[in-house]
Automatic annotation (TrEMBL):
Pfam families: adh_short_C2. This is Glucose 1-dehydrogenase. It comes from the Bacteria. Belongs to the short-chain dehydrogenases/reductases (SDR) family. It comes from Candidatus Segetimicrobium genomatis. GO terms for biological process: monocarboxylic acid metabolic process. Keywords: Oxidoreductase. Residues 13-199 form the Ketoreductase domain. The keyword Oxidoreductase applies. SMART domains: PKS_KR. Gene3D superfamilies: NAD(P)-binding Rossmann-like Domain. Its EC number is 1.1.1.47.
Amino acid sequence: MTEPANTYALSGRTALVTGGSRGIGRGIAIGLARCGANVAVNYREAAGAAAQVVTEIERFGRKGVALRADVTDPRAVDRMLTEMESAVGPAEILVNNAGVVRRTPFLEIPQEEWTVVLETNLHAAFLVGQAVARRMVKHRVRGRIINISSTSARIAGPNLTPYCVSKAGVTMLTKQMALELAEHGIQVNEVNPGLIETDMTHAYIQNEANRQLRLGRIPLKRIGEPADVVGAVLFLASRDAGLMTGASVFVDGGVTVW
C-alpha cells in the first residue's frame, strides 16, 4: 500500500476510527497518527489485527489503544467511549468507517441480511456519531466527524440493494448531523470511495471479468487503494477544511462524472 505523505498537522488531537483494524480503517488510523493524532482503534473481532495497528500508531510516538465494541449496540458504544477517554482522552475526530457488504439478488435477500447491513453501515454511524457528538458538546470540543460512505450512495449496483440503501442513508445522515451540530462548532462531512482494493473486495476484484467491467467504468482506469481514501480523510480532519460541513468528497477515479 502506498503511504500518504504527512501533509496535515493534527498534533495533540485525539481520534476514534471505527472498523479500524483492517482495510481503509487501518490506513486511516495510521494516517492520523502519522499526522500527529493519538488514535483509538475500534474493532469487533480482529483483536490481533487491531493490536498491530496500535503498534504502528505507537511507532510515530503517538498514543494508541484498541477498543473492542459492537458499534450497533448503544451500551457497547458508551463503554467504548469511556474506555477511550481513560486511555487517550475524549474524541476530537471521529471517523465512522465500520461497514459490511453482501451481494445478493434483490428477490433473494433475506431479512437477516438486510438488517445486518443496515445496522452496521447506517445504524452504527448514527449511534457512534450521536454518542461522540454528545461528548464533544459536553467537553466543548469543536470536533470533526467524518463518515465513510460510498459511490453506492449515488449509483445503484446489481445485487447490492442493502449496501446501496445504507450508504445513501449515510449521506443524508451526514447532512442532518452537519446542520444540527454546526451551532456547536462540530463539522460533519463524508468521504465516498469508489472501488478500493481491500481484503473485503479482493476476491471480487481478482475475478478478471469483474475487474475489467469495473475498470471500463472508471475514467482514470485505476482501482483505488486505501491510501487514496486516507488523504481525503486527513484533509477533512485538518484546519484546511475549516469551512466545510455537510460535504461529500468522492474518491472514485471519476466514476460519478457519468
